[in-house]
Amino acid sequence: MEERSGFGYFLLGLGIGVAAGILWAPRSGEETRQLLADKAGDGADFLKSRAQDGTEYVKNRADDVKQSAAEIYEKSRTTVSRHKENLAAAVEAGKQAYREALGDVKAAGATAGSALHDSAESI
Known about the structure:
This protein has 123 residues and is mostly helical. It has helices at 2-23, 29-122.
């Protein structure tokens, strides 16, 4: 029973509100509709301008990100190239050091071999 009386009060309040709105409306129905249409148009224009601003902002940020990525790529490429050259130089220096050490060992072996050969002949 309470639900019915609560619903009844709701309908009564709704009816009173509509009647008060109609009786004390500052404009006629046509003027109110035109005002609402104008406000809706203003709102649509505002949203369009904000969307265009947002699109422009996104485009600018995308261009900035592309530029930053290109700069980072170029720096990385230069750094990798420099390290590659340093590594190649280090490998070549290692090879040269190995050749020199091998030559020193061969020369020392040849000297020791000839000393042994000379000692063997003197016996």
